[in-house]
Amino acid sequence: MNRPVTALLAALESLLTAGIGLGALLVPLTALWAFQYELGVDWAVFYRAAADTWLLGHGVDVRFVLDPALATRLALAGAGNPFVVTVGALGLGLTTAVLAARTGARLRASEHPRLGALVAMATFAAVSALVVLTAGAESAQPSRWQGVLLPTAVFTVGLAGGWLLRRNRHGEEAFLLRVGLPVDWAVLLREGARAGLASLAVLLAVSAVAVAALLVLGYSTVISLYEALQGDVLGGAALTLGQLAVLPDLVIWAAAWLLGPGFALGAGSSVSPLGTAVGPLPGLPVLGALPAGDFGWGFLGLLLPVVGAFLVGALLRPRIDRALLLPAAAGELLVAAGIAALTGGLAMGLLASAASGAAGPGRLASVGPDPLLVGLLAGVEFGIGAALGLLSGRRRGGGEQSERAYRAEEARR
């Protein structure tokens, strides 16, 4: 495959990635425009709504100015004043990252991977610039510079993730050795980071199950809120699509709940294992699944992140022993656990930051978990669980000397 073909395919994949996310919003809104409003409203209104939502899903801040009549009906303090929404619909960003990872994996296997990656990022940046330049209106104005940089950053992170997943274990280790790390430290760094990310993945999986269970248990309340909105089929479908886009936010909030700090749904509110105390909320049906009251068993949720990290550590212990070609010492395992704590805590803090901020006017300017506190506690709980799991895991010594020789040869190249 020659260079022009690689560049063209990379550009097309970037366009497809952006088009899927934007199209998922624009298609139902266009159907709403055609069937509900019978083409009587300017289609650009619906396009800008889709573009603003797509940008929000990639972390872009959007400044809103509500119509006075709508602000009065909302009955929220400060609704009549301009406000900025910073909480994104992370489902859209996740879609971009996953599709970009597939692109990165394919480019890594091509004949000109670096050229393809540069073209892919440049194309996605151009699409992002086009979207943000055409999305602005008097009632909703996204940040211009964020609209170019942040979607491109999300795409680049996904691209890099797919690229790295194509690398084999020895390739990763050789890279760490080239930067001057000894063999043992390279192993501990790699496996510690893997333990931290795996612990976070277990926590998010448990949180996703918890959110699904709450939606099932609160089904009647959710349906009642849908009925209270008195919308038609197309309007309900558009609302459901919007709620699907914020499901990753809810999973991250549930993870913050399991870690202990919980999250806020407005200034002065709290949803944590100790209980739920919230004020007036928007009539978003998915919020009907929120747990209510005090939980005498809520502290048990704090054990889940530790137990998950413990299982991850126990499963990774034989892998570390094999890579080191002898049973790891306690000090080495504690170093790996410390790296797991740093990696998992930092990643969880970044996720909490993306899922928190301002969601509306007045008291809704404070929504989501505290990123610093959540990241700190995640690091502590992951570190404790990983350390216990690594220290108690089954030892497996021995190994082939050829593996160590292979790593050394790769490092010299």
UniProtKB/TrEMBL annotation:
Top-level taxonomic group: Bacteria
Membrane-spanning parts: 7-35, 83-103, 115-136, 148-165, 197-217, 237-259, 296-316, 323-352, 372-391
Keywords assigned by UniProt, alphabetized: Membrane, Transmembrane, Transmembrane helix
Compositional bias ranges of the Basic and acidic residues kind: 397-413
InterPro entries given in the database record: DUF6350
Keyword Transmembrane helix attached: yes
Ranges where the record places region Disordered: 394-413
UniProt name for this protein: Integral membrane protein
Organism in which the protein naturally occurs: Naasia aerilata
